[in-house]
Design a protein that fits this description.
This protein is mainly alpha-helical. It contains 11 helices and 4 strands, in the order ββαααβαααβααααα. A hairpin with a 5-residue loop joins β1 and β2 (18-23).
């Protein structure tokens, strides 16, 4: 049982791509959640301050009731929409997770779906907010045994990620998701400029770009994010064979894949403008 030790995971996607991922540490996930709660609390504080200023200017006697409504509404939106709204996007991460270099992925290597994002965040009510409600009820006539049960409940859910190798909470298990470290590849400016120049010089024919669809584009994006040399080589070889690539053989795999990703994305987006959405390579 570790909180900060590095755990690497070899994950093979349904398309046969081996992604080498680093599982997010317990400490990173806790700090990310704390940052998100601070952001939510800060937003509520701003709304409350604005309401107080309005009350001071207009001398509204019932402003305290308005503040209560603001906090209830803010808590509801935070619990039910904040996490979902950010994790359903392409980055699959809240501001707190981004700050810690984390993102949510599907545990089987497939694409993270909206249903999975909703389920993993809906479970947070059961894991966190419900037991916290029990604890906050102390002194309001609630039986002490019920409060103790809430404390035990909270403790079990808090330490649960420590007892499975992928550090998944119950929400992740229910949704089939997991949280990993997002790769951050840093290039020196001169190397980065050279990379962009070479990538932009590569041109693919419409036929070569039509070899794949949206599903493969998402897989390619995950491979580029992981930035694993072996995976890059495997995927680059498959694409070169698939599209009958006749260009330079000594072109770096990363440069080739970056260029193809850019071209494929542009091709798919242009086709969507005319109502043609190709789901995958089998969609004709």
């Amino acid at each position: 049982m570790t909180t900060t030790g590095v755990v690497n995971r070899e994950l093979v996607t349904p398309e046969g791509v081996d992604l080498r991922l680093k599982v997010a540490s317990y400490a990173d996930r806790f700090v990310a959640l704390l940052l998100d709660f601070l952001i939510l609390g800060g937003g509520l504080a701003v709304f409350s301050l604005a309401a107080l200023l309005v009350a001071g200017v207009t001398d509204i006697s019932w402003m305290s009731e308005v503040l209560g409504v603001v906090w209830l509404l803010g808590a509801f939106l935070g619990r039910n929409f904040y996490f979902v709204a950010f994790e359903i996007q392409s980055r699959a991460a809240t501001p707190g997770k981004r700050a810690m270099g984390l993102r949510v992925i599907a545990a089987d290597g497939g694409r993270l779906t909206a249903d999975a994002v909703f389920v993993r965040n809906a479970m947070r009510d059961v894991e966190v907010f419900l037991p916290l409600t029990f604890l906050a009820a102390s002194g309001q006539g609630v039986d002490a045994a019920l409060i103790t049960l809430g404390a035990i409940w909270s403790g079990v859910f808090v330490v649960f990620p420590l007892f499975n190798r992928d550090r998944r909470r119950l929400g992740d298990l229910a949704a089939g998701s997991m949280v990993v470290k997002a790769s951050r590849r840093v290039l020196r400016p001169d190397l980065a400029d050279a990379e962009r120049t070479v990538s932009r010089s590569l041109v693919f024919t419409p036929a070569q770009l039509d070899a794949y669809g949206v599903k493969e584009l998402h897989v390619l994006e995950d491979v580029l994010r992981a930035n694993n040399r072996k995976s890059l080589a495997e995927v680059a070889t498959r694409i070169r064979v698939k599209i009958n690539w006749q260009g330079a053989d000594d072109l770096p795999d990363l440069t080739f894949l970056n260029a193809y990703y850019t071209g494929l994305r542009g091709r798919l987006e242009s086709r969507m403008l005319f109502g043609h959405r190709r789901k995958d390579k089998f969609d004709t």
